[in-house]
């Protein structure tokens, strides 16, 4: 096993101090703030000690089988809200109605896995009834930002011949614009219903919940003629766990504890491009 240590504020001395816990046979410097520790000890107590020391130092620590690279994968599937982008779109839309605190509270509980996602989305969308659809464009223009390292990550995976999928429990208004802006191959999300220039408080068709996210990853892999073991899946909330569970590599980004605990890779401090060091 290898151990990749990286942190936006970490220096080599701090990284090597954490690395020493796993007693690596060799250390390769991947950049000014990232190292790969090769042939490390990875018993449970070693892993726990490394993760505890790394988290305290705001360093991301990833144990990964030696030799894994981007070439092992054919698809990168990403959640949108709070993963590829920094915001929860529905919370920001609700802010246009003066309802952000109420909606954000429901969103947070759903992402922690405490509420059924479909029911919570129906409830949240219902609160948007009557809002002018122009509010969606305002959210996109004024508040939506790609997460740190997102463009660099996408540039590298596309150069490696990996297809990209944005699959979201959010809305097509945003996924379609991001598809065009970032050159993504596939998107799948919920459709907000509108009549007379205003939101009706309903979605059109089925809701993209945890099961639908998983089915979408499986479907795109089937279209590509590859097993889901050749998919990297990134997410942050409980509704991402099922699609992450079928992936060859699951990545938790700024994720809820329940998601971090089950992911192969947890990027708590680095940007999305931290994935590139893990698979270097």
UniProtKB/TrEMBL annotation:
Its EC number is 3.1.3.3. It holds the Pfam family HAD. Signal peptide: none annotated. Pathway: Amino-acid biosynthesis; L-serine biosynthesis; L-serine from 3-phospho-D-glycerate: step 3/3. Its cofactor is Mg(2+). Keywords: Amino-acid biosynthesis, Hydrolase, Magnesium, Metal-binding, Serine biosynthesis. It is an enzyme of class 3 (hydrolase). It comes from the Bacteria. One of its GO terms (molecular function) is hydrolase activity. The keyword ATP-binding does not apply. It catalyses: O-phospho-L-serine + H2O = L-serine + phosphate; O-phospho-D-serine + H2O = D-serine + phosphate. Belongs to the HAD-like hydrolase superfamily. SerB family. NCBIfam families: HAD-SF-IB, serB. This is Phosphoserine phosphatase. The gene is serB.
């Amino acid at each position: 096993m290898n151990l990749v240590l990286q942190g936006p504020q970490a220096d080599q001395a701090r990284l090597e101090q954490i690395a020493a816990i796993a007693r690596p046979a060799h250390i390769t410097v991947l950049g000014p703030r990232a190292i790969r520790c090769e042939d490390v000890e990875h018993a449970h107590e070693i892993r726990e000690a490394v993760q505890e020391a790394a988290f305290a130092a705001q360093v991301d620590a990833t144990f990964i089988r030696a030799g894994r690279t981007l070439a092992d994968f054919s698809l990168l599937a990403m959640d949108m809200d709070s993963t590829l982008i920094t915001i929860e779109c529905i919370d920001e839309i609700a802010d246009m109605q003066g309802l952000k605190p109420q909606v954000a509270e429901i969103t947070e509980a759903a992402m922690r896995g405490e509420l059924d996602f479909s029911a919570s989305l129906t409830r949240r969308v219902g609160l948007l009834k009557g809002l002018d659809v122009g509010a969606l464009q305002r959210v996109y223009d004024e508040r939506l930002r790609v997460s740190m390292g997102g463009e660099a990550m996408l540039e590298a995976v596309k150069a490696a011949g990996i297809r990209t999928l944005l699959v979201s429990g959010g809305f097509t208004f945003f996924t379609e614009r991001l598809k065009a802006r970032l050159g993504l191959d596939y998107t799948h999300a919920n459709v907000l219903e509108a009549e007379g220039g205003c939101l009706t408080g309903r979605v059109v068709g089925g809701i993209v919940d945890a099961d639908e996210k998983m089915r979408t990853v499986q479907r795109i892999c089937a279209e590509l003629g590859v097993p889901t073991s050749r998919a990297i899946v990134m997410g942050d909330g409980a509704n991402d766990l099922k699609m992450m569970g079928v992936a060859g590599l699951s990545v938790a980004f700024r994720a809820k504890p329940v998601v971090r605990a089950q992911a192969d890779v947890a990027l708590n401090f680095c940007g999305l491009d931290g994935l590139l060091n893990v698979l270097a």
